[in-house]
Please model this.
Amino acid sequence: MKTTWLIAFWLLLVSVSTLLEPDFLTIRIVNGRFFGSLIDILHHSAPAILVSLSMALVIGTGNIDLSVGAIIAIAGSVTAVLAAYSQLSPYLILACSLGVGLICGLWNALLVAVLGLPSFVATLILMVSGRGIAQIITDGQVVTFDSDFINGLGNGHLWGIPSRVLIMGAFVLFMVVFIRKTALGLFIEAIGANTRASYLAGVNTLGIVVFVYLFSGVSAALSGVLLAADIQGADAANMGLWIELDAILAVVMAGASLFGGRMSLLGAVMGVLIIQTLTSMLLISGFPAQYSLVIKALVVITLIIAQSESVGQKLSRLLPRQLSRRWCPQKPREEL
Amino acid sequence: MRQESVDSLLRIHRVSIGFQGVWALDRVSLDIRKGEVHALVGENGAGKSTLLNILTGVHRPDQGRVYLENHPYNLASPGDALKRGVYTVFQEPNFIPGMTIAENLTLFSPPTRLGLINWRRARRQARAILQKVGLELDLSRQLNTLSVAEQQLLAVARAISHNAKLLILDEATTNLECHEVERLFRLISSLVRQGMSVLFVTHHLDQVFDYASRISVLRNGRCVGTFASADISGQELVQKMTGGIGCQRELHPSGSSFRPNFSSNLCSNANANANANANANQVKKPFMVIDGLGKSNYLKPVSLNLYQGEVLGMTGSLGAGQTELCRLLYGACKADFGKVRMGNQTGRISSPRTAIRHGMAFCPENRNVSGIIAELSVRENLILALQAKRGWWLPITRRRQVSLVNRLVDELQIKMPGPDCPVHQLSGGNQQKVLLARWLITMPKLFILDEPTRGIDIVTRAQIIKILKELQVRGTSIVMASSDLNELVTISDRILILKNREKVLELPIEEFDPKALSEMLGQASVQTQIAAKC
Model:
């Protein structure tokens, strides 16, 4: 339901952009590749989409993962350093980087699920130290490398579609099937909505929370590889900086509660797309660049307020009685 | 009647309030006179807290009126109650632990000079309050260094400083020792002589008889009646609270005709079953042997045999250990000692998952906190346990889910808009049925239920009992804790009585005498109070 609204809003943004720039929807084929603003938007939002999908899972269990930006930096640095200074095969480099993400996820899972620290504090530790670790790995330098395979991940294309968009699409598809076609989605939402009841109903609450953190670590690492591949190098200090906040924002825009429970995977994807499209729209509109962050913030906050339940209730109180009676659920009475 | 209204302080007139379809209070009327200690007793879920919530302004009644000194008593917020002179002392004193006594006592209306707090005057005020109640305490002490008893006295002191007309003691004596309770009531009785009224809510019936002049009994959201404490015995009172067998008709002057008398219909059946089972048990091997299962500071070791197709009823006064035993059996809480033997396996149940693997099911005491998952749909709530048992990689197909839901909705007569409706939109009774359904589809061998009918209306209660009886016939072993003796007698084959977190008695239903139990529980309340001190 909320996803429908987000899609509608995204379409609105796209149409406004088309009005501003008639070429916005055009997709050209140059040298066997697709080019166009829409493709660009997809290309740019890929890392954030990867991160926000797994953030949706973490938030679904009622936790949070602030460390994804740091994990991106670590995994990106590992990719860059290995590609620049070692003779490892690119597949092995990729495996190492994802493995590092897995270890980071394991660390978070240990703190949150096993030791029971509040997730906000627990993942803050890696958020702060992770970027330091990444800088240690790169020795504080911007490490550049030259690898055909990794370059292909970032800038290559297959069937005319940028490989990054393909990877992102495959990931989204995998996630949706993996979470919604198994019982994982149900368990995640059940834990977020009521951990105690889920535990008593036999749900492996510990295992599921460990799983979402591992998953979050790996998908952040994948996102880090893509970002490193894009520029063929790693800047440990700035890679994926603040991406966790974008991801959380996207999840919240999709209508999820930060206390856990119902989550919308497609909603989170749409959230990222809306933020990215808005950025592009502000760019092509010729609006002074310094205003764009504030305008983005205004649009996002309006969207969130519009779907907030408490705002809805307050509005309904202002409405005349008959109207609010129709819109607000009444206390059910048991027929004896 | 006329005279009553003259000297009555607070008059509650046919007040009703419903939550999620269940009447928490159903046309409750009572009045509190000026200068009396009025006790309000009832079991859990009888509606005491709801009534107090109305008096303190947390809830507003759906129907009926409340008058304070013959003026309508309508509260917009809890703060209003204070302004009208109704002051509540809770079980846990609501002071601010890190602040001093003086700060806490003058928190609500600190004396100011030029908009700033005048601390010297505040301390003087606080000292005056303490002197009034005869407490000698250092004003600069922090609140958390005081004992609970001292804090309660202080809370009363604060009430006086606000010129309370009605002091509500909401389980305020639960954490106090005997002599502390006495001290508290010495203070209170001096205030009562000056015209203040006290509404005293407690589970300790001996205190009710010691200190209250009149007693009102709530049961299932209805006021059973108000009695002068001199005219009623402890046993009678317990019977009125629990709806002791045989006197329930007299207890319901209004609306009693509606009450389905399932106890008499099914009682004979139950007894017949019990006999059959008792005979069978002599030959049949127990399906589960519990050997000294216990946990320190939680439950003293309990040994029990459970048989297939048998209902073990568990009762005792509040906090006597029923919930604890249920949780230990199910592994919701890990036992420190003892063993459980099922078939050839011996060991301890370490988690609910292990319990479920052994064919157990558990319907916990607090439905909203540990039972239903409010946000999720009826369908999701219903299949959760079965799905958890199968594991995440073997999802139940959507079609099978829907057919399961439809089947159980029919079987249990669950009233709901549709399988995808969030479960919190259902009434309490229907939520409870969804919980039962969640476990029924896992085909449990042992079903543990902790107060499955608490806070549930009479018709649904009867339905739930019927469901459990059918389950029993199919060979499921049932352990059920309940404070409703009617219910236990209806369904149980054996009764287990707990007291002070210890098993005290286990007997077949035909030897069970509810009267004797009432007597025991009457005493037990005294005992529990002693236990609470240790």
